[in-house]
Write a structure and sequence with these properties.
alpha+beta; Arc Repressor Mutant, subunit A; six-stranded antiparallel sheet; five-stranded antiparallel sheet; 35% helix
């Protein structure tokens, strides 16, 4: 912003006030033109903003060109243009009306844990089965009452409870699950990268997605969301909602006539924040609404943020959990989520508030064994991450439970079936098949897996070739250990969002319009059409002209949208022509004082001024044709 010209800075400020990061049709920026700028200077300012990346160009499905401030720049612009200093309220004067939930990171963890254990199958229409919807919803702390103000219109909200729809949308958007056949399945590499993030990094990513994905696109609502996200709003400090809205109206960030609507939408947004564990609501003694960020206020990622900083775990002196003699496991806040995830593989999650708690159970230990972590590996891992190691009685019980696993085994066998007993007898008498076959009945044999190809060859040679495919067998792939218990050295450990796409996730939100490379103004001829046929004297020489020529010069200034320098009533000034009318000829426009910088709208005839000159904007004065 410091590198922008004063003109571009002011044009950007006006666009930011009017539209925030909402796309608007090209041409509407003319209504926001500062009165001291001519059209050509406005075009140069827009050109400068496009070149600096402060504006983007998009095209909608009808082919119309749209401008938009990139959403990642909005926090920086708002902080630079509108500095708000909240007045905090004493906490003892506030009646708490809505507490903060346990947190979106915890809800996301529980949803992923549910999928890891029970799966998330889909119907033929692509929606989650009803019984799975109910079970998943029961594991979430966020309630329907928190999300009544979701600014999303989607058919999924008609079949899923809002908390479930949002959590599934987030898992898809983050790339932690994807649709495979008839189910949503975990993406293990992305999941491992996600759980290697510190909780503050997870919260920052989630908050940045939530604020842009689920909030209203109306400019006033965007301004409110980004305003309260600033560092000026400290955690656990109460602020009156009415004072913020009054300030927004006074600073043109909201219209006075829509203030009541803005209050309702702002309150709905604060409820969403409370449901996600980031905010609390209350009432002042006079009945006014107020809110405060919780201690878990998330950071908003903007263009100045280093994404890799989010992936750095804060060193902790005791990143371990505590195993109690009654099998309960207490997990302090500093324990990384990767450890919590592996712990969830062999323990039941009981609570996921500030202090998480699990319980070691026989069922969970058995489940871990089925996921590829043997009881011996699980006990060794628990000992390595438990503060002071496992209590003796707990370790003894785990070993006892482990001994019961694997004593019997169910295995699939390959069955060879014949059409008749005669064929069965022929196969049983074949000398080269005996070592790989066991006869189970007149027409059935069990085939040893290691001898399958030899059996196939001999049967083919004997005129009894079986099909290449084996009935009932599906393609089996090596499954990842869902509850990974050690960091893989082969997979990357830094989480990054998948490539953004408007259709990623459960909801289609954001701008589906196509991004275009901006067509920047490169030459004087491009911006001032026909300049090669206009005499250069009109812009080079300061002189008095005959009234007919003076009219032509003024009309040329209007056509190009540039200023005309005039000697008016003994004062030199700049004049921006806005409208020319005839019979008698006169011109209406803005007079710009060169001494006071005041702008005045006036109407002139050619008799009102003496000397004049067209003012070519500075960016084009040195062009080859000038």
């Amino acid at each position: 912003m410091k590198q922008l010209t004063q003109e571009a800075h002011e044009v950007l400020r006006r666009i930011c006030i009017a539209y925030a990061a909402k796309p608007f049709e090209a041409g509407k920026e003319e209504r926001l033109r500062p009165p001291n700028l001519c059209r050509a200077e406005q075009r140069l300012a827009i050109n400068e903003l496009l070149n600096a990346g402060m504006l983007e160009v998009r095209q909608n499905i009808w082919g119309e060109k749209l401008y938009q401030i990139p959403v990642e720049r909005l926090p920086l612009l708002q902080g630079g243009f509108f500095s708000y200093h909240p007045q905090f309220i004493e906490g003892h004067e506030v009646k708490l009306t809505m507490e903060a939930g346990t947190g979106l990171t915890g809800d996301l963890f529980r949803a992923l844990l549910y999928i890891a254990r029970e799966g998330l199958p889909l119907t033929s229409k692509g929606s989650i089965h009803k019984r799975n919807i109910g079970r998943l919803t029961a594991r979430l702390s966020c309630q329907e009452s928190h999300l009544q103000g979701l600014f999303i219109s989607s058919s999924y909200l008609e079949i899923y409870p809002a908390p479930t729809a949002v959590i599934v949308d987030l898992m898809l958007y983050l790339g932690l699950i994807s649709e495979h056949g008839a189910a949503y399945e975990l993406e293990m590499e992305a999941l491992q990268q996600w759980f290697n993030l510190p909780e503050s990094g997870m919260a920052a990513i989630l908050y940045t997605i939530v604020i842009n994905r689920y909030g209203s696109s109306e400019p006033a609502d965007q301004h409110f969301r980004y305003l309260i996200s600033s560092s000026q709003f400290q955690p656990q400090k109460w602020t009156a909602l009415s004072k913020i809205l009054d300030w927004m109206v006074a600073n043109q960030l909201a219209a006075a006539e829509t203030r009541a609507e803005l209050e309702l939408s702002s309150l709905a947004w604060l409820r969403i924040m409370a449901g996600f564990g980031w905010c609390e609501l209350g009432d002042e003694p006079n009945g006014g609404l107020c809110f405060r960020w919780s201690a878990a206020k998330p950071r908003l990622i903007d263009e100045t943020s280093d994404f890799h900083d989010l992936n750095v775990q804060v060193p902790s002196p005791t990143p371990m959990f505590i195993v109690q003699p009654d099998f309960e496991v207490l997990v302090p806040p500093e324990v990384p989520y990767a450890i919590r995830w592996t712990l969830a593989g062999c323990a039941e999650l009981l609570q996921s508030d500030i202090l998480w708690s699990f319980r070691l159970t026989r069922e969970r230990l058995e489940s871990a064994a089925e996921q590829g972590i043997s009881p011996e590996e699980a006990i060794s891992w628990l000992n390595a991450h438990a503060l002071g190691q496992l209590p003796a009685e707990v370790e003894y019980a785990l070993k006892q439970w482990g001994r019961g696993f694997g004593r019997t085994l169910l295995a699939e066998v390959i069955l060879l079936s014949c059409r008749s007993e005669e064929d069965g007898n022929a196969i049983a008498a074949h000398p080269r098949l005996q070592e790989n076959l066991i006869r189970l009945g007149p027409c059935h044999f069990s085939v040893k897996a290691e001898g399958l190809e030899q059996v196939r060859r001999e049967l083919t040679a004997a005129g009894m070739a079986p099909p290449r495919s084996i009935t009932g067998r599906e393609e089996v792939t090596a499954a990842d250990k869902v509850f990974f218990y050690q960091r893989s050295s082969e997979s990357p450990t830094v989480y990054t969002l998948p490539i953004s796409h408007s259709k990623r996730g459960l909801f289609c939100t954001g701008s589906p319009d196509h991004y275009q490379q901006p067509a920047l103004l490169k030459s004087q001829e491009e911006s001032l059409p026909g300049i090669e046929s206009v005499t250069t004297i009109w812009s080079k020489e300061w002189r008095h002209y005959h009234s007919t020529t003076a009219q032509k010069i003024m009309e040329q200034g209007l056509s190009w949208g540039i200023k005309v320098h005039l000697s008016l009533q003994g004062e030199n000034c700049d004049f921006i022509p806005l409208q020319v009318s005839g019979n008698p000829w006169r011109v209406r426009g803005n007079k710009l004082s060169l001494t006071t910088e005041e702008v005045e709208e006036i109407e002139l005839t050619t008799e009102d001024w003496k000397e004049m000159r067209l003012v070519i904007p500075s960016a084009w004065r040195n062009s080859s044709s000038a």
